[in-house]
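Lay summary. Proteins are chains of building blocks that fold into shapes, and those shapes determine what they do. In this project we predict the shape from the chain. Here is one chain we studied, written as its sequence of building blocks.
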Amino acid sequence: MNEDKIRNIIRVILVLVGIGMIVYGATQGEAAIVLRKAIRVCLECIGIG
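And here is the predicted shape, written in a compact code that computers can read:
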């Protein structure tokens, strides 16, 4: 195998792992937790929270 094929395989594997982690986090309700924390941080920055 040449070096370009190996790099492309590694890229595909990393993309698939990333997608898998996103799907796992979404099914565990992590998106809602992250959104809640982001809102709290934003409100604290402007002095409301």
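What the prediction tells us: The mean pLDDT is 91.
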